[in-house]
Specification:
Blueprint (H helix, E strand, L loop, with lengths): L1 H17 L3 H14 L9 E4 L9 E4 L3 H16 L15 E4 L2 E4 L5
Antiparallel strand pairs: 1-2, 3-4
Helix pairs in contact: 2-3
């Protein structure tokens, strides 16, 4: 019985070291957003809400919003799997723009 407990402890320690870092999941998410933000006009753009630690809002093509949010949830689940958690308050985003073929947040100031 004692050997079984030791094996479980070792497996737990190995799995904890396999957890993705915040930087790793942010890099993965940034790649997802980059491939999901193509546009020809601002009317194609919407905000997706990924959640902490991936950000409050990201500008993406409306056809990709559900995909981006689904991938964000999966990445956040990986991040939180071993007890990590974060939270922050978000402010309202600025207007959406399509600049150089990419959806992005515009400048809210006049």
């Amino acid at each position: 019985m004692r050997a079984k407990g030791m094996v479980l402890l070792i497996i737990g320690l190995v799995c904890a070291s396999c957890a993705k870092s915040e930087e790793e999941i942010q890099d993965e998410f940034d790649a997802i957003v980059a491939e999901s933000s193509a546009c020809n006009d601002a009317s194609e753009c919407v905000y997706a809400s990924p959640g902490c630690p991936l950000g409050c809002f990201v500008a993406v093509n409306s056809a990709k919003k559900a995909y981006v949010e689904e991938e964000a949830r999966a990445l956040i689940e990986d991040y939180e799997r071993f007890g990590r958690y974060c939270a922050y308050e978000c402010v309202a985003p600025g207007p959406l723009e399509c600049t150089a073929g990419r959806c992005q947040e515009g400048d809210a100031s006049p």
